[in-house]
Amino acid sequence: MTAAASPSGTGGAAASVREQRARHIRRQRAVERAAIALLKVCMVLIVAPVGLVVGYCLWKGWRALSWSFLTRPPVNGMREGGISTPLIGTFYLAIGTMLLCLPLGVLAGIYLHEFARPGPLLRLIRLALTNLAGVPSVVYGLFGLAVFVTTLKFDTSLAAGCCTLALLALPVVITATEEALRQVPQDFRAASLALGATRWQTVRLIVLPNALPGILTGAVLALSRVAGETAPIMFVAAAYYLPFVPKSVFSPVMALPYHLYVLATQVPRVPAHVTWGTALVLVGLVLVLNAGAIVVRQRLLSRRRW
Fold it and tell me: Which residues contact 13 (CB under 8 A, 6 or more apart)?
């Protein structure tokens, strides 16, 4: 009787274990489906407002878009004409900012991650960078007004605007550089050092090329933020109206974000399609820069071996 009952009991226990395992798998799959559905909802909640903004700007401003709108300066009190001088001024500000910010930010990120000695000072520097990245841009504008315009006598100029925006973008570039360097496997450094290379040769020839996709992505994202800033440049660089592009770095400049602010708040009887067309160009410029960052990153990642 005992010997006969034992196989049946063992089979029942195995069936019970299989049933419990099947229930556990079904629960895991249900949780996974719920998590994926929640992620999809979050994606829609993030992407939908961007699509609505772009779509509304396109709907209200498409009539203003033309070659003459992009190549002619504003005329008749900025109620007519185009946006060539604000657009060129924005490019000048963005290029000058990157020329100042990118070398300093990348070199600072390399030093902090590869050469700085761990300790309280390094943690304090990183905490300061995190806090600076969250400082409102208008504070940078007031700082630029006090330092570059008043103290250094740059006056309201392209140079003062580039220096102020470079300070604004530096924390983003430094943080992106450190994160990109952190993604490079430590084995690459160990192998290079074991072959007799110095630390600087290892960073320059091994680490930096592999971190380049992340660094460039961070730089382009910083550039897109700089291109859309209004508060800093209205104190240090932007002119209300100029019929020509700046002739030197110490001349004031029109900029597309500030020009849009002026059209929306200070110029009466501006046709609505002109204001929305300006907004559409600005939004399109930022989207193109962000799309360019994605394309550059993917191309560089496709060439990487790890």
Answer: none
